[in-house]
Amino acid sequence: MATATFYIVQPDSPQATESGLADYALFLSQHFARQGAKVYLQCNDKAHAEQMAERFWQVDATDFIAHNLVGEGPRYGTAIEIGHCGVKPTWNRQLAINLADNHTTFAKAFAEVVDFVPNEENAKQRARERYKLYRQAGYQLQTIEIQYP
């Protein structure tokens, strides 16, 4: 059964900022890729996808994991593929991490989806809508509060 996990962002956490959430998505992408998953990172648009790709280049060399934008890179892709609304992910991805505000139609191609519930009220409402859409699509849903020191 397909699962969707929503990470709840606490108001005073490092993830409460746009930059902090992007760093956490990078961390999760690397975490799942190291476990052998082929990860797809869904962004709002091309500029957002390119910004996320650049973040992957900024990590320490020991933490680097190969990644590519949709349509770039090797024929069968890298461990992490970064896309956006309007492009289709490679067929061989098992897990999607969603950073896009309102787009969930891509998710039906994945057995597992990770999404976020931010603190800002409009963003929180959009997350609730995505939650409903995943539920209607038959995903088993769970929520996790992001823990931080």
Automatic annotation (TrEMBL):
One of its GO terms (biological process) is positive regulation of DNA-templated DNA replication initiation. It holds the Pfam family DNA_pol3_chi. InterPro entries: DNA_pol3_chi, PolIII_chi_sf. It comes from Vibrio ostreae. Gene3D superfamilies: DNA polymerase III subunit chi. It comes from the Bacteria. GO terms for molecular function: DNA binding; DNA-directed DNA polymerase activity. This is DNA polymerase III subunit chi.
